[in-house]
Amino acid sequence: MEVLPTILSPGIEVDTDSSSLDDFDVAGSYLALELAKQGVGRVSPNPLVGCIVYSPGSELVGRGTYIKDEIEHAEVIALKEAGVAARGGTAYVSLEPHAHHGKTPPCTDVLIEAGIKRVVAPIEDPNPLVSGKGFQKLREAGIEVVTGILAEEAAKLNEKFICWHKKKRPFVHLKLAMSLDGRISLNTSVSTGLSSGSALKRVHELRHEYDAILVGANTALIDNPNLTDRSGLPRRRPLVRIVLDNSLRLPKEHTLSTTANETPTLVFTSNIDPLDTKPLTDLGVQVIPIPGGPRNFAEVFDELCRREIQSVLVEGGSEVAGAFVDAKLVDKVTFIMSPMIIGGREAPIAIGGKGAASVAEAFRLKDLTITQLGPDVEITGYPSSN
Q: What torsion, rounded to 10 degrees, do the Cα atoms 154, 159, 163, 166 define?
């Protein structure tokens, strides 16, 4: 086997003199995942997909990234670039190729027609229209199919898409900025900025990954936030702003109201009084009554699913965060902690709600990553019950 190409991304270590098939497959799979990442913010509600094609002589001859508005799938783009050099070669794809007719022909057919002899893909596509069928069709055509390589990384890359299909609801990522003693502001009526410039940059990178951002009425009222994606990165759809506002207290003078015609703004409420709703709807705010109020998350999620909102970044405040935790509807957690201690009985804590009745019932995290952001520290993890 020839040496690997020199375009491997930093962080991947492969013995280029090795004849190990596994090393080469790991490297090819990694490159497919890296290509898939280029579609962040540009594919929802579809998955992130990247494809790398190697010739039989182990030369990288094609690469492709799926971007929804550009229609062509990653496999098609990579195979077009590869041309006849793909025949007898290997395709590395970040997700199972689809075998059904949708807006485009099946990618499995394109791989078969191109003469690909081997497909390496880490995981099945959770979409019932695809799941398992793509691999089956490739095998029936005599193509060798290898799965499981970098499966955990592939699943995390498409965690929003996977949740959407398996749990039938948007992926929920709880993000909170706080002091070392777990306070999110000085007191209940003061807007308090805690994070450094490096941390704020990271927040906008996070927002870029999501279809919607959600806060409670208190946060909207006190902070008067923009709740926009200012990462500067390309995105297919604007970030949808969501406010859970039972009594419809959002002032018409606030930024969320006055900019609603520019950036989609949804307010879930139990208040249907026209005297309260009309000033907001006249500005472009979409006021959505929810039976039982906006803490009826099943109804809220149903509405978001109808709008093809696949993922939600929950940014506060304390009671909204607590409500999601109590309801066990959090799929991922990020705390950005500033090196300060606020103290005081009036300063709100990060997570409100009912809380755990015992230590055994505490909300525990796994797969932690800890990152320094200037003076701040980001801690991200997943619920251990997932």
A: 10
* Residue linked to tokens 């075998």: 99
Report residue 55 as tokens.
């010739």
The one catalytic residue in 13, 59, 72, 75 is: 75
21-159: CATH superfamily? Cytidine Deaminase, domain 2 (3.40.140.10)
Is 106 in contact with 99 (CB distance < 8 Å)? Answer: yes
User: Which of 104, 121, 193, 169 shows the shortest CA–CA distance to 300?
Assistant: 169
The values of phi and psi at residue 377, to 5°, are -130, 130
The tens digit of pLDDT for each residue in 46-105 reads 999 999 999 999 999 999 999 998 889 999 999 999 999 999 999 999 999 998 777 778
- Rounded to the nearest 5°, which phi and psi values hold at 102? -120, -130
Token representation of residue 27: 């490297």
**Do 223 and 243 meet the contact criterion of CB atoms below 8 Å apart?**
no
Which CATH code is given to the segment(s) 167-383? 3.40.430.10
User: CA–CA distance from 336 to each of 66, 171, 183, 292, 323 (Å)?
Assistant: 32, 20, 11, 33, 20
pLDDT tens digits, 327-341:
999 999 999 999 999
Residues 263, 313: Cα–Cα separation, whole Å: 16
Is residue 226 scored above 90 in pLDDT? yes
Domain boundaries, given as residue ranges, for the chain: 21-159, 167-383
Phi, psi of 28 (to 5 degrees): -65, -40
Strand order in the sheet with 50-54: 60-65, 50-54, 90-93, 118-120, 144-146
Does residue 152 have an active-site annotation? no
The count of other CB atoms within 10 Å of the CB of residue 57 is 11
Q: What residues have CB less than 8 Å from 284, skipping those under 6 apart?
A: 260, 261, 265
pLDDT tens-place string over residues 214-225 = 999 999 999 999
Tens-place pLDDT, residues 192-219 = 788 899 999 999 999 999 999 999 999 9
Q: How far apart are CA 84 and CA 115, in angstroms?
A: 9
